[in-house]
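Thread: pyridoxal-5'-phosphate complex, take 2
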Amino acid sequence: MPHIPSLGPDFPDAPLQLVDLPWLHEAGVELAILRLDLIDPELSGNKWFKLACHLEAARDAGAKGLISLGGPHSNHLHALAAAGRRLGMATVGLLRGAEQTTPTIEDLQAFGMQLHWLGYGGYRARHRADFFDDWLQRYGGYYCVPEGGGGLPGALGCVPLVDHVRRQLSAVGWDDYDAWWLAAGTGTTLAGLVIGEQRQGRQRRVYGSLAGPPSHGVAENVGKLLREAELVDEGYRLVDGSRGGFGRFDAPLAQFICDVEHITGLPLEPVYTAKAMMALRLLVRDGYFARGARIIFVHTGGLQGRRAAQAALDKLLH
Ligand SMILES: Cc1ncc(COP(=O)(O)O)c(C=O)c1O
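Output below.
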């Protein structure tokens, strides 16, 4: 059975940093960013955590390799391919759409991931219960990681973030916080935080800003994960932060990314983190949070994906 070492130190260094932006200041709301984007140049953001339990399960199953799926800019496949290379494990990526070259795809190839393009119809079949069967005939003994590194193992890998933040509160001069705010693609990371809060008997509400339309089933997925964890389906709220669709961006979003980076030095990307922070700004400006509220914003990474969007961002800005 091949031995899969752990990804790195037990807990990567993910600092908590206060940011001050005019709209926060005016509303008297304090924001601390959990900088998961800083933990590792390749396994950045929530991916490190979402993959940790999957890699452990692959090790326990004696897997020969890892197989998963995603789009041509997928942060998940990027992290999986990087993990595979680092751990000496073969990886296979099943891709949405027609064959194309993106900075992410170039990296996947450089990391040694075997790629297969499924088209759109073929990719839609991923929801079928037997989807992986044919692939497992070809790649016998591989461990299948669900889309986005999801499922209960993905959520459980994010649970330790709750303790990690609590341990760091004094570094930003806080003794407690009122809420979490983060981008939600499948809702797996959010579910991990809700599980972490509930396990401690605490109810700091976790807000998920949807990166795609509400029809993408995040609410159903979070409910399912919490039931699988034998917990109650509560303690969170989803808001639509998608600005009209997954991956869509516009001039105000490009301007927002630029302004936040200019004022605070914090880099955001357009698909998840910038939209999540824009959605937060809306609620803060509406007076949704009381003065003095303290919010943890999870920077879930994804900056590798910003390379493909950079030209479009530049165009929108000039
Ligand atoms: C950068 C980034 N942030 C947030 C998310 C959303 O995470 P989740 O699917 O756990 O909701 C993703 C996608 O997985 C992502 O790549």
